[in-house]
Structure formats: C-alpha cells, structure tokens
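Archive record:
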Amino acid sequence: MAALEPTSPKEFLQQATHIIVAVVDDEGKPWAVPLGLKSYKHRTFQWFSAVDTVHSRAIARNPEVAVTAYMADPAYGVCARAHAKKQLTLPGGFALYS
C-alpha cells in the first residue's frame, strides 16, 4: 500500500525516507551525499553514517550543514539549513547523527 500524500510540511518530513546532507569537506569544497533517513521527530532528522566518511568528518569539524529531505517520489522535497551533531557512537565505526 502506498503512503498517503502529505498534507503539511511536518507530515511530509515525517514520511520522508531519505535526506541529502551537504557539508564543506577537508579541502573547503562542497560535498553532498544522499542518506537513508532514520526518523524526523521534534524538528530533528536522524540518520546513520560511518564516522570516517567525508560528511561525518566535516560534521565533526563544523556542524553547519544543508539538508534536503525527500521520498522515493522525487516530485516532493524540502530544503533547510541545519546544525548536526553525533548523538551516539556505535560498533563497527558507525554513529547516530541528528
């Protein structure tokens, strides 16, 4: 069964399945990466990512990021500026970010 079409920005964000996180890399260049979205609650996105990736290293250095949320259907999307931080270090070199 397909998800219902969102009727508000909040509902869209709660139904979103992916985000693109854009950062500035170690050389000062922009870097954007699509990631699976764990959740959106209380105006906060959460996603899992390996801590040794370009975007995770950039967030450790500077938590200012740009975020685009989307669903499998590319007809919908929301862009925003955000402040990201590592919430939890996980086994295997991964972490939970929000």
Remarks:
- The mean pLDDT is 85.
